[in-house]
Amino acid sequence: MPYEQILYTLNDGVAIITLNRPARLNAWTRGMAKEVMDASHRAEDDDKVRVIVLTGASRGFCAGADMAELEGAADEAVASLKSGAAMSAERRVSLLMEQITEEEYNPENRDKIRDDFRKRYSYLLGLKKPVIAAVNGPAAGLGLIIALYCDIRFASEKAKFSTAFSKRGLIAEHGISWILPRIVGLSNALDMLYSSRVIDAHEAFRMGLVNRIFPEDTFMDGVMAYAKDLAGSVSPRSLGVMKRQVLNAMFQTLAEASETADEELLQSLASEDFKEGVAHFLEKRPPLFTGR
């Protein structure tokens, strides 16, 4: 797929997906949704890629849904509801907001993935590779949701965050009611949703919304140093299994999570990456993990 609204680059095992509508603070569009999904699956299927970084061009991460498209979608939604056609709410929203079919964000070749991580934006959690949100500026509304569905969030000291929905007459969209409380806690989540107030990077760090803050002038250097360390020094097989373990454990009992860990441990002991993990430690050399 040719990209018109994003950039896709590779750097030492790191795939960088950059939202590229800087004049609109990278406001989200239907076309951008398709391109980000395509680039994410492209990185997932590329053996040279170990880590994915999602960021925004210029001074913004993503200012939310493009308001021009959102207004048009509202008119379509009213017409859709009046039509009385038999269709699920999820299907209606997919068609109206992004025109992405379930088959596109739920490819048949993705195995061992819960249905929960096969939805419109939660597919980012279904990727086996780590996904880092590099929030370089405002992340509002849908932009915040995209960042939440990444595994880790790093922020520039100039980053700002807002749910925005209550001030637009909207609701907690696209599963944010599930994921936001799990990241920042119930009270913080309700505060952000009720007030739609803007929080800065330091408050976001204190509530656990972001993992680290970097100075604006060295922001991407800091993000890439972390991403390249993951790409070069740890087992990609381990990363994929651990990501699946942690996310699936959110739906499991402790006993179930322990049983899963026992099964995965036996498989890891038979893997090439385990043998390499022991060998490079004993030989005191950099690792050469294959992901197998």
Detailed description of the structure:
With 292 residues, the chain is of the alpha/beta class. It folds into 2 domains: 225 residues, 2-enoyl-CoA Hydratase, Chain A, domain 1, CATH 3.90.226; 50 residues, no CATH class. Helices cover 48% and strands 13% of the residues. It contains 13 helices and 9 strands. Strands 1-2-3-4-6-9 form a 6-stranded mixed sheet, with helices on both faces. A 3-stranded mixed sheet has the order 5-7-8. Strand 2, helix 1 and strand 3 form a beta-alpha-beta unit. Helix 2 packs antiparallel against helix 3, helix 7 crosses helix 8 and helix 11 runs antiparallel to helix 12. It is globular. The two termini are 29 Å apart. The relative contact order is 0.11. The model has no long low-confidence stretch (mean pLDDT 88).
In short:
The protein has 13 helices and 9 strands. It has 292 residues and is of the alpha/beta class.
Number of E strands: 9
User: What is the CATH homology-level superfamily of the largest domain?
Assistant: 2-enoyl-CoA Hydratase, Chain A, domain 1
Largest sheet: 6 strands, mixed
Do you know the CATH architecture of the largest domain? Alpha-Beta Complex
- The Cα radius of gyration reads 20 Å
